[in-house]
User: Fold ArsR family transcriptional regulator from Aquimarina atlantica.
Amino acid sequence: MRRDVFQAIADPVRREIIELLADETLTVNTVAQKFDVSRPAISKHLKILKECGIITINKQGRERLCQIQPKNLIPAFLWIEQYRNLWEDRLDSFENYLTKLQTKNKENE
Assistant:
């Protein structure tokens, strides 16, 4: 089953795994050692991240290396950016309103 990027980032453990892998490629064992959850739970999280295309897991000898695929996070970034722009516009409008209100209050004093 193909999952989407929003399913990947919905879980705090998966977000933390993404953060870890943003800095470097790590083995599955190294990723698992960074968490206080069971190894099967980490394997499940890694599987979901892989299904979403956020990471790849490649075998190198006896090790399985996890590597982030940042381009596949772009849909989430674009969605968040859209709302960031919306809220910036709303906050700018609110700031303008407060400035006008303060000016009006000073004139009435």
